[in-house]
Amino acid sequence: MLTAKQKEVLETLNLDNPLSEVQFESLLKSENDYTNEDPSVLERLLKMANALYRAGAPAIDDVKYDHIRSVLEQLQPENTYLHEVEPEAVPEAKTVQLPARMLSTDKAYSKAEIEKWIERLQKARSGDDSDTATELEIRVTPKLDGYAAFDDGARLYTRGDGYRGQDVTRAFNRGLQVAEGGERGLGPGEIVIKKSYFDEYLSEFFENSRNIQAAIIAEKKVDERIQLALDAGAVVFFPFQLLPDWKGDHKTLLADFEKIAESIWEAVDFDVDGVILEATDEAIKERLGATRHHHRWQIAYKANVEKAEVRVLGVTPQTSRTGRVSPVAELEPTKLSGATISRATLHHYGMVKAKGVGPGALVQLVRSGLVIPKIEDVLQPVDPQLPEHCPSCDSSLDWEGDHLVCSNRALCPAQSENTMIHFFKTLGNIDGFGPATITRLYASGIRKVHEIYQLQQEDFENMGFGEKTSQNLITQLNASRSIAIEDWRFLSAFGVVRLGPGSSERLLEHHPIDTLFQLDAEDLVQIDGFAQVTAAAITENLHKIEAEFREIYALDFNLQKTKRVSEKVDMNTPIAGKQLVFTGTMVTGTRGDMEKQAKQLGAKVGKSVSKNTDYLVTGDKVGAKKISDAVAKGVRVISEDDYRSLLES
Ligand SMILES: NC(=O)c1ccc[n+]([C@@H]2O[C@H](COP(=O)([O-])OP(=O)(O)OC[C@H]3O[C@@H](n4cnc5c(N)ncnc54)[C@H](O)[C@@H]3O)[C@@H](O)[C@H]2O)c1
Ligand SMILES: [Zn+2]
């Protein structure tokens, strides 16, 4: 679920053609590998993730971002997003030409890739690849994980799109200092926060140092705690020239690579996400030059994956809301990326059975960055440890595909408890009804969410909750009904299989919430995105919750209705049903706004011209070839003015 901060960022940045919030969320949640997605959807997904990340409110971790990026690279290697510096925009700052280009870095994840890069440097020096003997000087520095900036002595700039950045000189006026031993005007560097200071004074209040860096350059007055950090000299602009480094010839570097990388990695008291290697020879640098994305003479070495071989102590079954029983591996406690790991979830019991996971098995545990660790491989299998009964209700288990499922759909405590927990968690507007409370309610005979709403303060007290707590629980329950929530969120809180937030919203765009139970699969199939199987499953599963839904719906929640498609789109316009593509720089509005408006006026808006396109609307600076290609496909090419007249016709 997007946080308020993330929503604000997306709104203020006003991205061109963003995905809907629901689509964004459901794509990030999906466990697919993205290879079946449309490349343009992936591009829009990456752009949104990038905007959030740059604004200090990331929606996903770097590994996932890099993964989606690599999928797009496979599907559409020529996609321009991949070949440019990922843009960064500070709202409320002036955009200015950068004194020098600021680029991203090429990345390597293994020593073998570094060896290849050195070969390319050699080749650039000699013009052929035979000369690998002559020494080549390499500088290695820590790769600071902060906010890239450029200081020309007068102004401080952000990296922007690599050519034009934004003027954030105000950071210096607020007390940002140049790292010790430095002065203003030393060119490219990074705004960073001392790790020891962050851990001691800030970690309690801020999730990561990234949102502090973003705050320092933002227009808004900085938080008091950040100001204290600035005053204490804990936040600095660190010019790369001043970084502690290792310098030497490439042979020594390769001979002792891990050691050198590690010692440089640990050389500063800042967040570091790799080491930077670069050639120092100006002639080589000049010859190699840069792509639009990175300097060819520079590379980042990131070892973002840590692995360990770990013994399994046992496999514990856990029954979920839907009755599926998931395996959790209990592990010999192991340190990985700074945390002690003693449990990791396994995909499903199909994997436990096929790969032989049980007490004594040796598995490979992998952790990328700070993500939840995964068991990637089973190195020494044993007889699998499979449960015969549901750990919660002791009923027998059935196989459904790769999953073991509790056969006791109606009376299994784990299923009921998790269903109730899911309801309050999905509503997301109150506190107090987490696992501990729900378990106690269950023990006192509560089985369904609507029963919770019938409880009085003394009922809670009789169940063993304290007086204050009971009072608070009543307050929270009342609040859950009065605080406004979207009706699609409310619907998805019932945990109907296949009816998550995304499909709930889509469904409600077509049918009001109180008519859902009259629908059959045929009605659902009419809606974009509901295949026959899904439609059948949804109608069937909806009926299972009908009684409970009616009880809870009657409690008068403050539901905000999803806008119906028929209300949103005006089909009675000159462009209704037409296919349009906008290209070039628009004069009378942003392209994103114009596309949105066209959709509301009933048009279908595409990204590229096909033979089904009716109109290509051209703004400023459109290449002649684009126009002649469109004409060749029989598309009508019109100017922005023509388009406006068309709308008025
Ligand atoms: N989690 C997300 O949603 C998300 C979104 C976008 C990008 N990202 C991450 O960001 C990465 C790409 O972003 P990027 O291009 O800003 O970063 P990068 O990792 O390629 O780093 C490039 C930057 O490193 C800096 N740098 C730090 N130390 C340096 C040194 N010693 N010498 C020279 N330069 C140094 C420079 O400012 C340069 O601009 C991706 O790989 C991805 O992991 C994550
Ligand atoms: Zn059970």
TrEMBL record:
Xref: InterPro entries: BRCT_dom, BRCT_dom_sf, DNA_ligase, DNAligase_adenylation, DNAligase_N, NA-bd_OB-fold, NAD_DNA_ligase_OB, RuvA_2-like
Keyword line: DNA damage, DNA repair, DNA replication, Ligase, Magnesium, Manganese, Metal-binding, NAD, Zinc
Binding site for NAD(+): D62, V63, K64, Y65, D66, S104, T105, R159, E190, K302
GO biological process: DNA repair; DNA replication
Keyword Kinase: no
Sites where the protein binds Zn(2+): C390, C393, C406, C412
Domain of life the protein comes from: Bacteria
Catalytic activity, as annotated: NAD(+) + (deoxyribonucleotide)n-3'-hydroxyl + 5'-phospho-(deoxyribonucleotide)m = (deoxyribonucleotide)n+m + AMP + beta-nicotinamide D-nucleotide
Function: DNA ligase that catalyzes the formation of phosphodiester linkages between 5'-phosphoryl and 3'-hydroxyl groups in double-stranded DNA using NAD as a coenzyme and as the energy source for the reaction. It is essential for DNA replication and repair of damaged DNA.
Family statement drawn from the similarity comment of this UniProt entry: Belongs to the NAD-dependent DNA ligase family. LigA subfamily.
Name of the protein in question: DNA ligase
Organism: Oleiphilus messinensis
